[in-house]
Amino acid sequence: MARQNVAEQFVDILARAGVRRLYGVVGDSLNPVVDAVRRNAAIDWVHVRHEESAAFAAGAEAQITGKLTACAGSCGPGNLHLINGLYDAHRSMAPVLALASHIPSSEIGLGYFQETHPERLFTECSHYCELISSPRQMPRVLQTAIQHAVGRRGVSVVALPGDIAGEPAPDRVARTALVTTRPTVRPGDDELDRLVRLIDDADKVTLFCGSGTAGAHAEVMEFAEKVKAPVGHALRGKEWIQYDNPFDVGMSGLLGYGAAYEATHECDLLILLGTDFPYNAFLPDDVKIAQVDIRPEHLGRRSKLDLAVWGDVKETLRCLTPRVKTKKSRRFLDKMLKKHADALEGVVKAYTKKVDKHVPLHPEYVAAVLDETADDDAVFTIDTGMCNVWAARYLTPNGRRRIIGSFSHGSMANALPMAIGAQLTDRRRQVVTLSGDGGFSMLMGDFLTLVQYDLPVKVVLFDNSSLGMVELEMMVAGLPSHGTANTNPDFAAVAEACGARGVRVEKPKQLAGALKDAFRHKGPALVHVVTDPNALSIPPKISADMVTGFALSASKIVLDGGVGRMLQMARSNLRNVPRP
């Protein structure tokens, strides 16, 4: 049996760790690794058109599966392109292993062609970043990188010079067991007892939930029922906590709606569950706050805490709920549910007024029809910008759908490459992008990746011919919009020229049929929807806080554009409020 080289050993270790795809763009320093992938049946090379797309795709796959994924870039400029997608994966807590191929080891530090220093460049967007300088070092470095990515939920980067990748691997390397799953973490009894006392002493408790509530829906609902707490959420918590939730009071933050802001400010005790919500201006500073998080470095970095609790949300609530006293009064909860319904009644009018006849199409209408037409288990990938607004307001979670975006890093152009990674996990599952014209055109080259691999991704392109969110930011700051206009082609014709299905929608009556036709199509498809560039509106009074950072109550809606079916859910929850 021929002796393995380092690249073959590298690929074997990735495969044993559960990696099924390596996303990247080939290059000379990567050739030994790509060739090793070619000869290994357990792992596939996915050839994208831009390394940034490779990192976004790997991050999306990791978020869908919860398992380790991998991407690669060749030396210098090749692996530099990975950095934006890796930042996003790292901040989304997606376990991703990145291979940053490197120049010949003998030339490092001598200003060689394409020389960079990846072990320095990637340190801020990774838990672990190391250079392999000898074949004997590789297995232990790679194992350590894998365990950092899996155990700490984020990115690890391994820099591997191309010449070392091609060298013979050392004989009789021990096959060390790899950690590929995480344990549950529960707080100590003393912390739980202190949290119980805070809850029992508070008359009004509010829960505010983030992505850390994934898998804990039942536990959150049981706890909310016991302490009669309204439940708000951040954008990354929407898919996990909003559905089947009789305590829902909406979302807080820049895209907020409903009564989440009021519920967090009018309570006696605010409990933050699995959220690293970044906008501290929306958090109260005059109520008691407890925070539960699996990552201790997140505790207290957004607001002053009365109690920090280190543990995962599901296990913490399993331990906590039996210990707290059942609260008898629903007065605060019912008040917040009523405020929530009233708030949604007000903003929904903008959506219902002749919206099905308006040309150019209201983007709110497009998002609402898309929500009704898409599968119950669809994966939605969302471009940063105005598409975040439509996703937050109109996509209806149900416990089976997934909603993925660059919600923590806030990068443009993420939706299309994320859809590649999401679709490769399951070709039978519907994957739909909500793409803006700015984001789509930035990484449009990877639409060709959909065609090359015949991935049945459906791109729904909201074309308002502008960078809409940036334009809004300028307007709120009192500045005239400048540099935000896009001159766009007929994207449907572009899609057809690439070998995919393309359809252009300019009138509301065309929309439902175009979406259904695209969803029935077995391959990739793009629905180019021309939307109203004036679909933004500013509150009647612009506050100083808005100008400096959008720090305003969610009751003053920044984007007056309706809230889709959430009003129906609020009305339904309100009907369950006991009457005197």
Strand count, sense and closure of the main sheet? 7 strands, mixed
Q: How far apart are the termini?
A: 82 Å
Per CATH, the superfamily of the largest domain is Thiamin diphosphate (ThDP)-binding fold, Pyr/PP domains
User: What is the overall silhouette?
Assistant: globular
Provide the CATH architecture of the largest domain: 3-Layer(aba) Sandwich
CATH fold name of the largest domain: Rossmann fold
Secondary structure class reads alpha/beta
Give the CATH class of the largest domain: Alpha Beta
**Radius of gyration based on Cα positions:** 25 Å
Which runs of at least 5 residues are low in confidence (pLDDT < 50)? 537-561
Count of DSSP-assigned helices:
25
In spatial order, strands of the major sheet run 10-9-8-7-11-12-13
Strand content: 15-25%
Average pLDDT metric? 90
Short description:
This protein has 580 residues and is an alpha/beta fold.
Structural notes for this entry:
The protein has 580 residues and is of the alpha/beta class. The protein has 3 domains: 6-166, Rossmann fold (3-Layer(aba) Sandwich), CATH 3.40.50; 189-341, 3-Layer(aba) Sandwich (Rossmann fold), CATH 3.40.50.1220; 354-574, Thiamin diphosphate (ThDP)-binding fold, Pyr/PP domains (Rossmann fold, 3-Layer(aba) Sandwich), CATH 3.40.50. It is built from 25 helices and 19 strands. Strand 8 (231-233), helix 11 and strand 9 form a beta-alpha-beta unit. The chain is globular and about 75 Å long. The model is unreliable at 537-561 (pLDDT under 50).
